[in-house]
Structures are given as C-alpha cells and as structure tokens.
User: What shape does this take?
Amino acid sequence: MGDSDPVAAVLARIRYDGPVPPLPDPAERVRLREAFGWTVTQMGSANDVRRETVWTWESDPPRTPRGEKGQRYARILAYMAVELAGTGKGSGTATPEPAPGGDPQPEPAAAEATPLELDFDIEDPPDFDWPDAEPGPALAETAEPEFDAPGSWNDLPEGITRPCVRCGQPTSCLVGGQPRHVYLQAMATMGMPRCGTRPATPPTAAPQAQTAQAMPTPAVPAPAAQPVPAPAAPAAPAAPRPASTPSTRPAAPPRRPATASGPASRRTSRTTTKKPAAKPVPPEYADGPLAVLGITDGTLTAHLADGRTIPCPAKTLQALAAWALDKKKIRLGAAALHDNGFDQDPLIILTEGAVAHFGLPTDLADQEDLRLPADHKAIKSLTKAGWELTKAGFGPWPRIFKRLDGRRHCIQLFLAPWGALENRVWGRAGDLPAGDLARMLGTYARLVITPRGTVAVTGEELMTSLRPPTKAEWSEQENKYVSAKVPHTLHTVVDPAPCEAPDEHPVVAADYPEEGSRPASEALDEEACIWVRPAELITDTERACTHVAALDVQVAFLAACRRLHVGTGPAIHYPRNPAFDPDLPGSWYLDLSHVDTDPRLPSPFTSSGERPEGPGWYATPTVAYAIELGVDVRPMEAWVRETHSPYLQPWYDTLRDAYLTVMADLGVTKDLDDETFLAAMAGYKDGDPLLVTLTNAIKATAKSGIGKLRQRPTGLDHVFGDPWPALKRLTWRPDIRAMILSRARTNMHRKMNHLATVAGRYPLAVNTDCVVYATDSLSPLPLLLGPDGQPIRGGFRLGVNPGSVKHQGSQTIDWALDLLADGVNIANEIKDASLVRAA
Assistant: This one.
C-alpha cells in the first residue's frame, strides 16, 4: 500500500524514536481524529485494535491505552496535532515533529471527511458505504467564505484527486483540509459555476480579496489546558428563555461532550457536557410549539409555552383549526428535527373549560373505544367545512387536517379531560392550570418533540423524525423531485424472523396454529432479568450484615441504545452452522446449557436468571457476551441482518440530553461527587413538581418507545394468527427491541460479575434494572469500592448519566431475609413503605 492508503501513509511518516508524547483528554482525542478526517475504523486499523476499543479510548471516562499500541496511539494523535496546526485547526499543543522526508498527507475521501450532524459517534461498519445524507455544519454553504483567496488552498501530489465535498467531481485542491474546488471572485465575474475544474493557473484575485488577505487577523491564543473546539458554522444567537422555563432543546446533539480540566476529586474528574446553543426559532413558529386553551373570565384564552396569553376567537372546531393555522393570528408549530423530515404541526390542548366551550362532552361515554361518535354534531360540522380526521377518529389525541394547494395542513388536538395524559406517567398534570400545563408541555416539546399521543407514540415519532425514512431527490427522468428511500433507516416494512415474532404473528401461527403451542426453545426470549437467589445460597457472612442496599441503573434501556448497531433490512436465514459474527445484528440458535455459571449470580443467558435447559435463540449481544466469558459458541442456525446502522443513536442523544437538562435544573448534575450526588437524588423530587413530572415523562418516552417496537394486538376482537395494524408500521421491529433488552441485561450482568470477581459481592435479587446487595451500611457507597478502597473497574458507578446507578433504597437484613425465605423479590419491594413498616 502506498500513499493511496491514508492509514499506511501516516504510519510511514511518524517518528517512533524519542519520548512518547502525553495523551490528550478524551474530547481532544475525538477532535483531533475527526478534524484530521479519520474514522474510528481507520484509527483502530492504525493501532491494530477493533473500532470498539477506540471508542473506549475516547469515552468518558476513558480507558487508557497501554503498551506498544498506546504509544503508537499517542504518536498518531501528536502527528495529527502538528498537521492540523499547519492548517489552522490545531490545538496549539507542543508535539513531536513528524519524520523528515514525508510525502504530503493524503486526504480521506469526502464521505469519510464529512462529519454527520447526527452525532452517531460510531463509524461505518465493513461491507457497506455509510450514507452522507446530511453534511456537517463545518461544510455547510453558510460556513464557507463567499470566495477563496489565492493561497488558501493546497495542491495534492500530481495525479492524485479526491471527490469534491460539494459536487462530488474529482479535484486536486484541499481547501481548509477538505477536497473542494476553489471559487475565486474572478470566476464569479466571468459567470463560472460555483464548482468545476480548477484552472491550471489561478487568476488574479480581485482587489477586495487581496486586501482582505493582506490584513492579518490578530491571533488570540487559547489557554493551554482547554481544547480548541472544532470549527463549526456560525449560529444565530438564541433568544433568552424565561427564568421559569427549563433549558431549551439544543439544535443538534454535540459531536462529543467537552471535558472539564482540573479534577478536584474522583467524581469531579468526570467530564461535563456543555449545553449547545439553542437553535433559533423560525419566525413562522415564533409563538411556540403549542397552546393550551382555557376559560379566563368567560373568554377562551390561549396560554403559550413562554407564559404569554392570546385571546382565541374560535367558537367551533373548524374555526379553531383555521385559527391555529393562520400565521397572521398565531404562529404555532416547530421546525423539523432533520432536514429530510417535516415541520412539527401545532398542538392545541383543550382543558375542561375549552372542551365544554366547543360543545364536546367533558367525559367520553364510550369508554371502550375512547372515540366520539361520528354522528356527533361537532364532528359533522367539522367535516362539512372540509376538514378531515385520521382513521383513528376523534379521541383524546385527534388530528384534524385539510388539503389546500396540494398540501395537507394539520393540527394536533389533545383533550385533557379525556385522559390524554397517562396518569402513570404524567400524574395529575391534566388538572394543572392552563399556564402551568403550557409551560411543562412546551418544555417537553423543546427538549424532545411536540407530543403526538401517548409517550409510546411520541417515542416512536421521535425515532422517525430524527431518522426520516425518505427524502426528496431530483429525478432526471421525471424532471421533478421524487421521494427516495434513505439507506440504513427503517424505510421498508419487513417481516420478522419466525423466532423473533410473538406467538400470534402470522409467520408463527402458520406453523403453530394453537395459541401457546410453540415450544419455548423456538422463540427468542430476550427480556430483562428478574431473579432471586435461593435462600440456601445466602452465606453466613451476608446474613451477618446489618442492611441490604439497592442500586438502580439510570434509564437502563435507553443506555443500551448507545452506539448499538441494529438491523435496518430484512433478516437473512443461515440454516446450517454459521460462524458467529458479533457485528451482525440478529438471532442465533445455539446451546448454552452446558455453560457453568456461579449459582450466586443469575445466568446472563435467560430472563429468569436460571440456567438454559437446552438449545435456544439468542440475540447478538447475548452471544457476544458468552464469548467474553470464555464460552466456545457454535451456532447451529441464524437469522441475521447484513444491512445495519446505529439507527437509534440520535434518539438516544436527544432523550439523554433532555433527561440530563431537566435533572440539572433540579440540582442533579454530572459533576457532583458521590456523597453530594446521593443527597441530590434523595431530594430532587422536592423540587419544581413540573420538572419532576418531566423527568418521569422523558424516562417513560424512552421505555415505552422501545416497547412500541414490539406492540402486540390489543383489541378483544383480534383473531389469533391474523395481522394487526401495528405490523404495517416501519418501526414495528421486535428484533431491535430484542437487541436492546439483550444488551441492557448483559451490561448489567457484566457489572455484577466484576463486583463478584473483584470484591466477592453477589446480588441477593435482581429486578430488571435494580440489584440488591447485603452490606453493613445504609449507604450504597461501600458496595462500589474494591478491597483497596478504590472504585472497581468495570463495576457500577454512581451518576446521573444513563447507565450509571443511583441508590434505590436500603432496609435491614432481617427484613430482607424474611422476604427472601418466601421467595419474594426484594429488588421489587425495597421501596414499598408498607412492607418496611410490616417488617
């Protein structure tokens, strides 16, 4: 391989003698790699490690690379810093010089150099090209100067070209380190296009350009301890938010959290995420995403999310719809979350007074269907005026639309007295005053998305809004824009593999027509673990402890979505002894019943925690974890998806940022030490009740959105074996749900296993994301430390981040032993005050 291979070219020019340069902090490692144009896969190839290992080197907290590979990694980063300093992108850190006599650095292809705005933090898997559907802000047209000044570009070696990041045609120019055609003012004067073949001799620039080049800009040195952020497109300043409103949703998740320097303690050394600047609100949506209608002094009034009120003159539903869409009267709605998506429709919430104002019943008579009869006078009047309802009819979340000018104009209604807000999630929020309800739901809309129904429906809507399945693409044949599928999104309805489908699915019922007749070994059973250690296996040492303490994983299922590759295409069947590939999402049939596991730990292979009884189906993360434990896996059959992507990464980022933002407003931040964190978590529910409700809603959006991936039939009239409406959704993907739950369960088992191996502590009970241990303290802190008093590497860590743990509760050992003797799962009961008093 020569200079055509950028990895080999860089390795050939690095000096390997002399002292090893120090490693920068994780955020700077990411910034250097991305600014240099390398993917995680390329960095892994350069260091002879897997790309997953590079992720751990760049994670927060990082895993420190050691030995020869660690030295090489440090030298590569130092080389990148030197090269980037020459292009104005370096951090200014002193680094060793590259070996003399090296050739010019070849730039990567445009597809690798262009960062994706969705912050996947994961690189292209082998065997397919990642879609470059959305250029990053650094390459956006608005981020480039209007013209390129002479001398602002470099030439590649003769005969070497790269695809232009704008037009895709070959170019031998590097502008700002990116392959791009130059564009001079003289070209514009001659009417030449923006992109094209670079002239052999650059024309003389216009006097304005020369003057601009001749006037240097004074350099402002950055502090040595602070990493310089990667260049980005300038953003308009965000409007200040009202003091009573929590932080607004960022325009896009950051590529990587910025690190804090100067740690003061073990916990304060962890990095904190800086909130990105809020995305400017488009003028057409200046009044916010929603309005809550209430009766004030006998007048129908719209309460907006920012605290303002506007009179609403509508007396009928059709007048309300017309008013909500009239930008001259009120500007409701929100911008699309992705350039390929659609803007978010206005949401109008009707309180009990508003429901009565429009002649609607304050309580639905049909409690079974939760729909207003089609012959109701309000519905008839609405349809007579040319407005339509979706097939769902007029229920707690009706959508009203009208087709005008070839487009469908919609508003979303939400009737609070009809139980639109689920009590188990939102509590009594439906009874809040209109102004408070507008503030709370408006904050949710800015942090997550404008609600579209239950939290499950909203969670699913967020998935497709962040990763739209189609985009507008110009068709030369039809001479117009057409809808095109976006690769590596969920753009096509696919059937599940037979092992992944529930019993009532047609692909299963065809072979097992009687409900419950399918053998358990033929079904993929990836669920959360619920397990109790047998009382006879509780040791005397544990019985001598004074208390039990429970650790609860923060938003465990959401945490499992981070960097998780899931299948986006159809399942491919390999019926005979396929070789296991951890990079392929899917289901594998193999026998793990022979694997010996410690009986004081739950089995990592089953949801019951019991040892498998024979061969069965397992999702890819479960099989990969078995290999991690030293098991020789030999699949006999497999259903895998060779087309896959980190589809849920932007969904994870959005919900994580929303959760951390609200928790920070409640006083629980990422930079707290352990004792302060425990105190903050113990008292955060005494804070603003609207924010506390928001945290519950955000967590429920994540959990219910994952459950929606495998929605089962709900109607009593469903016939076993017949399809149900959910199967028509692009996001009905039980295989993705299985991947998430498999990863969440094995992640938790890995930490329990580390705790057992290092400190000899074994769980007494596990319930989904909660685990209970015997201890001599009410505090869970002693459980997290090893014999040397230091945190256990790979074990549980306290924190507010998804995947970290919080204190679920503590009780006396006698309380625990009494319940365990009866087989009660104390992980599920440790917070039950009635049981505590009874003990």
Confidence is low (pLDDT under 50) at residues 91-147, 184-194, 196-277, 833-839.
